[in-house]
Design brief:
Tetracycline Repressor, domain 2, mainly alpha
Length: 200
C-alpha cells in the first residue's frame, strides 16, 4: 500500500471517530509513524486530504452496495441489509464529523450532496428496476421522481438542524421514512417481504 492510501485510510478512521477539526496533521503523522512532511508531500493541506477521504469513502460504499445487491436473493432483502450497514455507519461516526464538514467545509459538503456523488443514489435506479423486474415494486412508478424523493430523505437526515431539538436518532428516522416509502411503491409480494424482514 502506498503512502497516499495509508494516509487516506487512517485519516478516514480518525475523522469519523474524532471529527475533522479535532484531528491535526501531527496526530495523523504520529498514528502512521511517519513525518508530517511526508503527509504534506502527498496532500497540499487538510482540505485536499478531506476530499481524498470523502472520495475513497464513496468508492468503498459503492463496493459494499454492489456486493450486497449481488449476494441478496431479492431487492427487499438487499435494502434491509443496506439499511443495517447504514445504521452501523451512523453509530460508528462521531456527530462532529458531518457537523465539521458542514460548518468548516461548506462547499465540499454541497459537492458531496450532488446526486452523482452519492453511491446509493446512483444505484437506486438499479434497485428500483430490479424490484420491478422481481415483481416487488409496482410497474407504474416513476423511477426518476422516486429517486429524487429518496435523495431528499438522505438530505433531510444530513440536516441535523431540522431535528436538533427532538432527540431523533438519525438512522432510525431514515429507516422509518425509507421503509414506509417502500411500502407505498410495493406490490403485495413486496409488502410480504417487507413485513418478513421488518419483523425478523
Amino acid at each position: 500500500m502506498d503512502y497516499r492510501q495509508r494516509i487516506i485510510e487512517e485519516a478516514a478512521v480518525m475523522f469519523r471517530t474524532l471529527g475533522i477539526r479535532a484531528v491535526t496533521m501531527d496526530m495523523l503523522a504520529n498514528r502512521l509513524a511517519i513525518s508530517k512532511r511526508t503527509i504534506y508531500e502527498v496532500f497540499r493541506d487538510k482540505d485536499e486530504l478531506l476530499r481524498g477521504v470523502i472520495s475513497w469513502m464513496t468508492v468503498k460504499q459503492k463496493e459494499v452496495m454492489m456486493q450486497i445487491l449481488e449476494e441478496s436473493d431479492n431487492v427487499i432483502e438487499a435494502i434491509f441489509k443496506l439499511l443495517d450497514v447504514m445504521s452501523n455507519h451512523f453509530k460508528n461516526m462521531s456527530p462532529a464529523f458531518m457537523m465539521d464538514i458542514k460548518r468548516l467545509h461548506g462547499q465540499l459538503f454541497r459537492n458531496i450532496e450532488e446526486p452523482n456523488d452519492l453511491p446509493y443514489y446512483r444505484n437506486n435506479s438499479e434497485i428500483l428496476l430490479r424490484g420491478i423486474k422481481e415483481g416487488v415494486f409496482r410497474k407504474d412508478i416513476d423511477i426518476e421522481i422516486t429517486n429524487k424523493c429518496l435523495l431528499e430523505v438522505v438530505r433531510l437526515a444530513n440536516d441535523k438542524d431540522v431535528f436538533s431539538s427532538d432527540n431523533v436518532i438519525i438512522e432510525e428516522m431514515i429507516r422509518n421514512i425509507y421503509i414506509n416509502y417502500l411500502r407505498g411503491i410495493s406490490t403485495l409480494k413486496g409488502l410480504v417481504l417487507i413485513n418478513f424482514h421488518e419483523n425478523r
